[in-house]
Amino acid sequence: MLQDSAHIQEKDVEYVNKKRKRDGKELFEPLYVQDDALETLEKFVGINYRKEFKITPEISLTFYDAGHILGSAIVFLKITENGKQITLGFSGDLGRPHLPILKDPEQIPNVDYWICESTYGGKDHDNPTDSEEQLTNVLKKAHSKKSKVIIPAFSVGRTQEIVYALHRIFESNKAERMPVYVDSPLAVNATEVFRLHPECFDSETMQFIRKNEDPLGFNRLTYIKDVEDSKNLNSVDGPCIIISSSGMAETGRVLHHLANNISNPKNIILIVGYAAEHTLGRKLIDGEKNVQIFGDAYDVKAEVIVLNSFSAHADSDELLGYTNRFDKSQLRKIFLVHGELEQQQAYKNNLESSGFKNVIIPSRGQTEILL
Fold first, then answer.
1. What are the start-end ranges of the H helices in 53-130?
2. pLDDT tens for residues 113-153?
3. What's the pLDDT at 77?
4. Which residue from 63, 91, 107, 286 could staple onto 73, CB 3.0 to 4.6 Å apart?
5. Kind and range of the H or E element at 84?
């Protein structure tokens, strides 16, 4: 994923610099390149969940399963200084209970300080157990309209969840089968990593595996790496499904698929994940009727459907429920991060209404003394 991120930055800078060079402006440099990513990966060390690791004699680290994507972790730190010890937790991206494939988020021990994400601090999602039924309804509509369904999806996590849900739907004959294409080299590689780690799967997925050898592969599913094979999808007729990154529709092959299909009223754009402000994905969610792709204007005539039941981020109630399990008498401060200000403020209000004190939305560069 780090190498793929570097590749995207290189290509984005290359594209932007063409115009800047013509305009006589100073050229940009990518933050890092693929060689930097490869050098960094050599320094990575894997640590198992629930295994305490000494960073220094005074600081110990334990990872707990965040249930967000494969390998995601909640951080639990024990810090000793001048004979005093504190505990600090950091949520990272916190997952949701009852999501397909992965186990639910683990509760970490009580902490003195809690740094918590707030992506959906003021929003509730549909129940994840409804996701298959909602996706089934989309498939039925696509079949009747002979739609090409374009799904911008994160390569790690969301793509595998969608493929797994499609497999279950087709196996149970809830919807007629149609060709499914996963057009993302990173998603193809990530899916192989998923297959190597069934110990992270929940009990329902393990039961499905016992009956079906491969939950992430089925008849009429095609994984695509080659660029020419990706281009050939332009001539494929619906009904079919194209799952492609990036999830926010800001870069990657999905932009080509959107450019080729977004102005056809027969088609469907299915949004199944978070999209940050100002991204193409957010503009589609917000119902904009004309969008820019590769610098060109496109009328949005395809039907845009949003299924937030697939979201891997804990929603307002789930964030509050997780934090409510901490001992309020021990918890000294809560810091809300990783969220738009509106969501942070809503989450702060919910926490204070639940009896938490010292809930802080830190500003950029703000420092706090904990010991």
1. none
2. 999 999 999 999 888 888 999 999 999 999 999 999 999 99
3. 98
4. 63
5. strand 84-90
- Quick one: 57 exposed, middle or buried, by C-beta within 10 A (0-12, 13-18, 19+)? exposed
CA distance 14 to 128: 40
What are the backbone dihedrals phi and psi of residue 328, each rounded to the nearest 5 degrees, phi first? -60, -30
User: From CA 232, how far away is CA 234, in angstroms rounded?
Assistant: 5
CA pair distance 99, 193, nearest whole angstrom = 19
Q: Output the CA torsion sign for 331, 314, 291, 259.
A: positive
In the structure encoding, which two tokens stand for residue 354, read together?
A: 């639940």
* Average confidence (pLDDT) over 209-238: 82
DSSP string, 189-216: HHHHHHHT-GGGB-HHHHHHHHHSS-TT
Instruction: Tell me which H or E stretch contains 21.
Output: helix 2-22
Q: Where are the domains of the chain?
A: 2-41, 53-124+313-360, 128-310
Cα 5 from Cα 85, distance rounded (Å)? 38
> How far, in Å, CA of 110 to CA of 323, rounded?
10
pTM: 0.80
Closest CA to 243 of 358, 161, 141, 338: 161
d(CA 286, CA 73): 31
Class of domain 53-124+313-360: alpha beta
| Residue whose structure tokens are 């281009």 | 231
